[in-house]
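DM between two lab members

TW: hey, do you still have the Complement component C7 entry open?
JB: yeah, one sec
JB: this one, 333 aa:
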Amino acid sequence: MVITLFILVGFTGEFQVFSRASTPVTCQWDSYGSWSECNGCTKTQTRRRSVAVYGQYGGHPCVGSAFETQSCEPIVGCPTEEGCGERFRCFSGQCISKSLVCNGDSDCEEDSADEDRCENSESRTSCDLDKPPPNIELTGNGYNELTGQFRKRVINTKSFGGQCRKVFSGDGKDFYRLSGNILSYTFQVKINNDFNYEFYNSSWSYVKLTSAEHTSSTRKSSFFRSSSSSSSTHTSHTSEIHKKKSHHLLVVQNTVEVAQFVNNNPEFLQLAEPFWKELSFLPSLYDYSAYRRLIDQYGTHYLQSGSLGGEYKVLFYVDSEKIKNSGKVLKNY
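TW: and the structure you got?
JB:
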């Protein structure tokens, strides 16, 4: 009996500790670190602060940015203001091959400087097609291995590299021109055999579940489509189901690939101009704030290969009233 009493007292003490931990904790910033080296291109420097105490148990989150920027006087020049040697220099400062100048394609991604001053006698068309495959820009996005999220483009998917390589889509019955950074691109539909089946006894239970999932998912950014179009589609879809509340539902889901791609080797890739400029703006001496900011925007990796596609969902409606009137029994799947 004495041993039991001591055990109960011990547990009571533990529960009191946990109850005190549920008090709201407000987020607190740590102090800023030192300023980075003055950037010769932007004439600015940055410093960073980290979170000292994270908001918990309903406490207020930290407000404001982790970075602070101010103007400064640089002591080093800007790399983008220097020449390109034998290559052509875009207005942004990026260098491209002279063979890409006046070829009818805008190989200077942001300013089209390579086609700006071309006389009719100089201009030559490198291809009779300038339409890239749908959603080709997704193949150039960066990827953050630390967070598992896709980031801004690191590869220039708009430049054809002076080449005229075409690929045919049997589904769209049309030809598309491949980017110079794409090694191979194939239109081939692939569907996994692993179908996901879900059965709902009423449409109300389905609407309740999907509404909760949709509310949670819209808080996260979507990589393949905008949240606004997703929201309107979802609202219209659930409204239709609300009208059919006497139905049982069988939901079949699966993923489908529509195209597969392989990007070129790193030494042959042309960088996206915004990413290239961010790289050229990095301080010559390592600065944690500047490099961390670059990773936050563009990620840690580029896509060597992958596939484009999405998910599809099919809903089968079973009329409960008709089955009941027919005398048949509806069995669970």
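TW: got it. The CA atoms of residues 56 and 330 lie 48 Å apart. Residues 2-20 form the longest helix (19 residues).
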